[in-house]
Amino acid sequence: xxxxxxxxxxxxxxxxxxxxxxxxxxxxxxxxxxxxxxxxxxxxxxxxxxxxxxxxxxxxxxxxxxxxxxxxxxxxxxxxxxxxxxxxxxxxxxxxxxxxxxxxxxxxxxxxxxxxxxxxxxxxxxxxxxxxxxxxxxxxxxxxxxxxxxxxxxxxxxxxxxxxxxxxxxxxxxxxxxxxxxxxxxxxxxxxxxxxxxxxxxxxxxxxxxxxxxxx
Length: 216
Known about the structure:
With 216 residues, the protein is of the alpha/beta class. It is 45% helix and 12% strand. 27% of the residues are buried.
């Protein structure tokens, strides 16, 4: 009976309670470890899958850009053997807007610059020599197209935009020796022209500055 009474003492009850608490704590820690490990495995799996998706998307983007660069721009006009002399007088260019030829010694700033007024042809041609794409429009261009093209230029180094009231078409894109008329800002050739000719292979002076010139 003494042994039974000893097992029922307050001290024994406290020990039993403490042991039960420890058992529950060990069980809780085990569950937490399982949850942590499972979550880590899920995160790693997601990262691997996500990384694979991102790599696949990047590969597709690279392939699209390479295709744009290697494919001809439909309806594009080209001029060869353009002169590159620096002159400080007006130049009578055979095309409008001009895509090359003699030009002013100072370039028009073309570091994503959008001009709302006409700019000198002679300075803009110097920008083309440095590898810029020049977007121009006349009074017949739709405001929505002007805004969307302005947004693209504003995000693209080595590009500039300005109005040319007497050009034949509402929207024209020009690079050194290259020019295309597009129907709207959503014309697929807009993206292709930018991809192909911003600092493209036609550039006479690749890497030359598009800042530090004239900012009208």
